[in-house]
Amino acid sequence: MTRPWRLRHRRPAGDQRGAVTVLATALLGVLLFLTAAFGVAEAMVSDHRRAQAAADLAALAGAQAIQQAGDACTAAADIAAANGADLEECQVQGEDVVVTARVTGPRWLGARGDLSAQARAGPGGAN
Fold it and tell me: Which pTM does this prediction carry?
């Protein structure tokens, strides 16, 4: 026995079935994009810290080389390379050494994100 009221039942014209699925898919896409963006930002912070550490150590190695009558920029370049950085600039100013180190940063959507840091080291002066 069929029930005639079921056969004639139709959905109203403004039925919203499936709308939540579309909204959830869009929100999931936005969440995925934001997660990737925060991941790149975290990688940039981490790489900048690595560049700063390499610059600091390279400047200290250069200052020590000056005290031992060695080549400051060669010592600084060796230490920067050992810490995963390229020595971009090295200046000897009296007994001080000023260096700039660069590390390869994250790549995202074709953009380059190389990061650099500068450091200075030398004997402390008496004040």
Answer: 0.72
